[in-house]
Amino acid sequence: MHSIDPEVDTNTGTALEKDGEAAGEERLPALTVVIPARNEQENITALLERLAPALVPLRAEILFVDDSDDDTTAVIECAAVLSPVPVRWIHRSLAERSGGLGSAVLAGASAACSEWVLVMDADLQHPPEAAVRLAATALRHDVDIVIGTRYAGTGSTGEGLAAPGRSLVSSWSNRLVKAAFPRRLATVTDPMSGLFAFRRSTVDLRRMQPRGFKVLLELLLRNPSARVAELAYVFEPRHAGQTKASLRQGATFLRQVVRLRRQRLVGQLRSGTPTGRERLRQAWRMLAFGLVGTTGILVNTGALWGLAHLLGLHNLVAAAFATQASTLWNWALVEVLVYRGRGSGSAAGRGVRFLLMNNALMLLRLPFIALLMRADLGVYSANALTLVALFALRFLLSDRVIYAATGPEGGRDPVQLLVDPAAEATPSAERQQPQTRRRSHYLAYRYDVAGTVTIGSQIRLPELEFFRAGWVDDEDVDIAVRVGDVGPRRPRRRAALTENGSSDKVLRYEEHLGRFGANFSVELGSSIEIVVGPLLARSPHVVYTNIVEALLRYVLVSRGRMLLHSACIELDGTGVMLSAYTDTGKTATVLRLLREHGGRFLSDDMTVVDAEGNAVCFPKPLTISAHTLRAVQADELTRKEWRRLRLQSRLHSKGGRSIALRLARFNLPIMGINALTQMLVPPPKYSVDRLVPCRLGSSTRVEELFIIQRGAPRLADLGFAETVAQMLANTEDAYGFPPYRYLAPALTIAGLDHAELKRREREILEGFLSGVRTRVLASDKFGWADEIPRLVRGEHPAAEAGVTPRQPVVGWPSWRREQPAAAV
Ligand code: GDD
Ligand code: MN
């Protein structure tokens, strides 16, 4: 049953005892809505009436953490009986209530056993509808914390903070914490929201020491790499009853900010230097820092002399001003000579921190200067002495706090994710801003992909050229690609993905350069409208790979086909599929099979398959990577093409791509960089018959699948479940590029959401694979093309061919046709 922690069992209750079915042990809720309540008797019933029914499809439960002295507990008990979702409650005794709202939230979170915990107020200031949207967003997106925000998109404090001064206090305390933690809260607009959700497995609750109201703030600060999304909502007025916020809460809040800031600073200062090499580098930096500091002392002394001697300012006042001058001097030199752009954030931001540090240290120095001067030391010597004395501390603060290096894993994902259901779903700039230059709407290029999906585009999409159709009616276009201005003109500080509207959604991805950069939007309606910015439009490969193909994938799924990451050829009438992780040697193997064994070509990268085991050809131009060059014969390309190919293949290899992925961790306009790179050096793409003379097969029934690997020669059958998992992982791997990660979970196509689309895709794959024999074939000398034709013909793998199975095999294990679990 729904009993929780035995220690608090006496104080807890559940209204589910009689509801045996819903209380089944095996169906754990996916989400627990934790509602802290303190004397909210007039609000509970109204809250549950609006909240509980909407939670049913999300498989959620409700958990009240009740610190009331009025009748709230009894009201919960009554209302729970009528609730269509499980309702539990913890009634805390007076002794347990210290820590207030913060500790209540934690108590609730610790008593939950679901993956997600959502926290909301009991007084209906957080509209239940917004909370449900937030829950759905959390369950769908690949993030760890989702925040209800009043400070982004259509979100607002509305009438909710109408009490005099409340809205000012709220917006100023918001500014205060953002200034105190500029990096950790960089992508967060409402760090003090009381409406939020978090994934229990990715945040560490044991480290929390909540005091007062601001639990989310602490959660964000203590989990610096948790991925965050926000949902815009309007804060409502209290339904009934009194707010528990008070001046005392305000003081607690300020103390908490100071405490968190201090803990973070101590943490940063303690962060040791791990390796000897790093310690050596640090010693170098210290030396350089010292040299800069020495010149700074000269500047400082000069300024002090000018101010005190020439202008006749009081010694200590002069020393204070002199510090500003030398600080600017030191900062400029340190920035350029010692750290050379290390540290996160902007140079100006680091300058401000540097100034703050030196002024704080100056407050420490001034009394000592006065003391030393009493002891008959001259003002210049006293000033210089205190500067030298604090050298080590200054260096440590600079090295570990201001210029702390953030590794690729540290820090938050720099892309802002905002879900804004109330925002109007008008994506295309032309409709929104009539004053912009009118662009033609005409779709000059039309494609009919495998007779299943039609695409119309204003830019030529080389990957789809094979499917160029003579005529596709405007009304029949499933996916349209147009060029336009997406988003506002002004540059942004970081990239953002915004999801506007609720039923017909518009997804907008914007990067730093503003509208003229690599922005794009996707409008999901009865047809899909993609608008790409002018920079992107000039890199059709980027448009296709990062946007169109992701959508094509799911439109195909909605029509019973799957875009499977694999190569496919026909050998002697048998459909043979090849799969491998990127850069293994799949393309080279395909080329050799075509050349040396007269295979027919169907696809090299993505194959369109159905649940009946059929594959349809999808001859995208082949991307030639460094090791694929071997399989291309010298006379097939011109000398100039060869030279270009060498450079291209290096740039567009897996290594090149992983650099791009790493760049994305920093706050860089990754789509823009990608588009520019591809404009300057287009990826090496050649149509297959340009590389090897061959024939095309239009469709085939696939019977054999080889997963090729590098390594000690090996051949082994792979079970059905294993194959499905591998092929799914492998297909996902093909979509690893950043915007996809944010885009995909937001998709709804033909009324199917992302989870449902993925479920169907799996079904199609299971159907497809049920008639396919899968073998893993490892080779250490790119020998796959020699083995595969033999294996397809059913010959025993010859020992002299270098394939030595790990265990001696007496007769190959026969393929047992396992039935897929969810086959139709
Ligand atoms: N269990 C428990 N114990 N619940 C409490 C306690 C407590 O000590 N104090 C307050 N609550 C509950 C209230 O019953 C209500 O459900 C919720 O916490 C918020 O309390 P309010 O008194 O309504 O606070 P507020 O509306 O001023 O503050 C809200 O907005 C702030 C931002 O403007 C909260 O959501 C804050 O977390 C948020 O920072
Ligand atoms: Mn409230």
Structural account:
The chain folds into four domains: 5-267, Spore Coat Polysaccharide Biosynthesis Protein SpsA, Chain A (Alpha-Beta Complex); 276-402, no CATH class; 416-558, no CATH class; 561-624 and 686-823, Rossmann fold. The protein contains 24 helices and 30 strands. The longest helix is centred in the middle third of the chain and has 35 residues, at 276-310. The strands form four sheets. Strands 1-4-3-2-5-7-6-8-9-13-14-15-16-12-11-10 form a 16-stranded mixed β-sheet. Strands 17, 18, 19, 20, 21, 22, 25, 26, 27 and 30 form a ten-stranded mixed β-sheet that branches. 40% of the residues lie in helices and 17% in strands. The chain starts with 11 loop residues before the first strand and ends in a 32-residue tail after the last helix. It has 824 residues and is α/β, with parallel strands linked by helices. A hairpin with a 2-residue loop joins strand 18 and strand 19. Bound molecules: guanosine-5'-diphosphate-alpha-D-mannose and manganese (II) ion. Residues 36-38, 40, 65, 67, 97, 100-101, 104, 121-123, 125, 170, 192, 194, 213-214, 243-245 line the site of guanosine-5'-diphosphate-alpha-D-mannose (GDD). Residues 289-402 form the GtrA/DPMS transmembrane domain. Its main location: membrane. Keywords: Glycosyltransferase, Membrane, Transferase, Transmembrane, Transmembrane helix. Its EC number is 2.4.-.-.
